[in-house]
Please model this.
Amino acid sequence: AGSKHSHPLTILPNSISCEHPQTKREPQKDYIILNNPLLILLFLTGNIIGSGIFISPKGVLDHAGSVGFSLIVWVLGGGICALGSLCYAELGVTIPKSGGDYSYVTEIFGGLVGFLLLWSAVLIMYPTTLAVIALTFSNYVLQPAFPDCLPPYIATRLLSTTCVLFLTWVNCSSVRWGTRIQDIFTVGKLLALVLIIIVGMMQIAKGHYDALEPQTAFEFIKDPSVGQIALAFLQASFAYSGWNFLNYVTEEVVEPRKNLPRAIYISIPLVTLVYTLTNIAYFSSMSPQELLESNAVAVTFGEKLLGVFSWVMPISVALSTFGGINGYLFTSSRLCFSGAREGHLPYLLAMIHLKSCTPIPALLVCCTATILILCIGDTHNLINYVSFINYLSYGVTIAGLLYYRWKKPKLVRPIKVNLLVPCSYLVFWAVLLGFSLYSEPVVCGMGLVIMLTGVPIYFIGVQWKNKPHWISSAVERVTYLGQKLCYVVFPQDDPSEIQPLTEKSEL
Model:
């Protein structure tokens, strides 16, 4: 790490442009132009609806303690996401920089807080999310072969690792291949959800709704504590993750003042409705005990109701999770890439392949971290792990909105939400994180400790400018070797993007 304007030794051409004979596109120019309200709505909705709805229902029910209360958690979870999205809409048009949370926090609180958020995202949030989705992929693929028991531990880990390695290779080879996979496999999750909801509603129409009747729905399997309820919200939040993804492309949204709130008002209630209906459909054919005992909820649902066509469900969910892994690999590598360009991560992560223009070093770091986390724990513990850090980052970012209001009260804000919105979110955020930490001190506390380890790393790697010569030489040798192995160089600078986030600017 260090200043982005003092590049280390480069053995290959120092920059490349779109005139390279092997490529017709400039690196970092794969912008998404969101110039249609319907396109903006589909973009946000498509990024929220993912593999989480096939993973989280079991965890939500387990911690909520009853069918009725679990459905309430799903509805309230969508409402909390709506509050957070409105706050992010204000930040997105007030600080129109790419990078989402990382950019906002760095601009408002400075380099240290921004680095800690980046550090936790690179080491915890993205690799853990990738690990959870990869494990879900392997569970759904292997479950039909092991109908009466859990798939073997080694088998799920090997298949998950193979999937992550394959998609890392795809994204290293071509940006176009990665985006095409994302487009194609999005159909899988939509097919699975539509099929589940339609079949579930047909079951309810036939009178199969015993678990949903009020006197049955609120029969608690176990008495939930406040801490367990907080963990239920953390499980649900994993399925809703992606509600802030539109902030990563705010600069590509036409008329954001009008289209950002409109997309939020429509997409999040729509996703909340879909998720609630999906859970209702599950309970139309499965008892709470059956759902908790299932390792792949959608597969169990398909086996009970689809008969000879039950194979459709695991294939659809596998397609969905496969596309989810690809999408998170793409975005996590770009976050590493952005952090390195700002001098907050090693220079090597800011380099791209000379011909294919893909950030190979950043992709390899994300892949390695994911494979390591795959061996740590089971799916639901990993969800608590990543959701705690996610909520911690959201809360810090929204607290930044209040601080920025106080710091720059006269700044023009095209979107300005009522103060009750961020305050309500922060109250819920404080209660949720406090009780989650109390209920799972090891899982949540470990994430907090890993985040705080970034403090000495920041001062040693970023703030310490006059390092001994042997340290600089070692970094240069590693960078030199990485360039030779990956055949990567620094991309050509875009004059509109060279201002560091830590510099003060007039907005």
